[in-house]
């Protein structure tokens, strides 16, 4: 685990593009035919957020998480969530040392730069709650003592659909701490055939080597923080989030935390596109994965089989987009 006392200087967008390009290429050695999922995973990491991957078993959720983690030379841990997993199994525990006659803290797997939470919704709500402080405040409190977590710090969690046996629905407070949620989906036939050819003898994960390290990633994150977002687009992000709270189909809309995550993710999207400023297209590209999983739909919407992603797409067509000085949509650096 690596920690720093001060934030490093940001790198150029050219260097950022080179590093993220290598990470993308590394991940695609393991997960092929899913560029959108890989892109959102990178956006989430660059926005210093947490990623939730929801889909049926066997489509590559854990493989994507492991490939992203192995692409960076940093501390990585994996937590397999089960119904009998306890909060102390995640955060760590204080153990009495007979020699020193004092309690010593033994850190749990949450003390890493990249934490992979496999099948998170198979853990009980009590255990899932152990992640709330970690994900929001990047710290752990055990027996009245607070311990800082590493930098960078990202939780990549996978979950099976709630309809499947042995799962618990994630609490709203837990879902709200995930910056984005993605669904891998089944591969196209040609991609599945390529996967069979490439994975039959051995797993590509075994030969995957890091293409970046913690120090480089800290500079990458600093570059993303420095991306400019105009006042009009900040207001547009607020308008999108607040509009979800007024939709009759929605019982619980996006929180202010969601607005913050939307802006951070838009900056990461702009940086990956080689720009040091955000445009409306960046917000549109990440609005569904950032906002949809936070919405709690009304019973009438569920009965009518409305989905949260569809509602967000509808909203993007309703909320007016800020206009550039020339009259067209888009806000430049100025």
Give keywords:
disordered N terminus; Rossmann fold; five-stranded parallel beta sheet; two-stranded parallel sheet; globular; alpha/beta; 334 residues; 15 helices; Helicase, Ruva Protein, domain 3
Give the structure's gist in a few sentences:
Helices cover 44% and strands 16% of the residues.
Highest-level CATH class of the largest domain = Alpha Beta
> Any idea how many domains?
2
Strand-residue proportion: 15-25%
Shape: globular
Number of helices: 15
- Regarding quaternary structure, how should these chains be classified? single chain
Instruction: Determine the structural class based on helices, strands and strand pairing.
Output: alpha/beta
Low-confidence stretches: 1-5
Average pLDDT works out at 87
From the alpha carbons, calculate the radius of gyration and give it in angstroms: 20 Å
């Amino acid at each position: 685990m690596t920690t720093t006392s001060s934030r490093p200087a940001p790198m150029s967008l050219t260097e950022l593009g080179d590093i993220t390009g290598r990470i993308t290429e590394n991940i695609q050695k393991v997960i092929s035919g899913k560029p959108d999922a890989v892109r959102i995973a990178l956006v989430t990491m660059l926005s210093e957020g947490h990623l939730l991957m929801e889909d049926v078993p066997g489509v590559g959720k854990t493989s994507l998480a492991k490939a992203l983690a192995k692409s960076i030379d940093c501390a990585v841990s994996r937590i397999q969530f089960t119904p009998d997993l306890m909060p102390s199994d995640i955060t760590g525990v204080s153990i009495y040392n007979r020699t020193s006659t004092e309690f010593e803290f033994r850190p749990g797997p949450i003390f890493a730069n990249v934490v992979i939470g496999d099948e998170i919704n198979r853990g009980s709500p009590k255990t899932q709650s152990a992640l709330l402080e970690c994900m929001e405040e990047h710290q752990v409190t055990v027996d009245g003592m607070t311990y800082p977590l590493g930098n960078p710090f990202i939780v990549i969690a996978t979950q099976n659909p709630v309809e499947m046996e042995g799962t618990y629905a994630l609490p709203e407070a837990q879902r709200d701490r995930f910056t984005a949620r993605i669904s891998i989906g089944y591969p196209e036939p040609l991609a599945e055939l390529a996967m069979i050819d490439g994975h039959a003898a051995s797993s590509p994960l075994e030969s995957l080597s890091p293409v970046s390290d913690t120090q480089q990633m800290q500079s990458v994150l600093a570059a993303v923080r420095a991306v400019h977002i105009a006042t009009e687009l900040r207001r547009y992000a607020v308008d999108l989030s607040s509009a979800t709270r007024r939709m009759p189909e929605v019982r619980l809309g996006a929180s202010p935390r969601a607005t913050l995550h939307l802006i951070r993710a838009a900056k990461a999207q702009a940086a990956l596109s080689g720009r040091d400023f955000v445009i409306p297209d960046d917000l549109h590209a990440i609005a569904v994965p950032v906002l949809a999983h936070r919405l709690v739909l009304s019973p009438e919407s569920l009965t009518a089989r409305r989905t949260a992603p569809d509602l967000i797409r509808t909203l993007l067509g309703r909320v007016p987009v800020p206009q550039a000085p020339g009259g067209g949509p888009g806000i430049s650096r100025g």
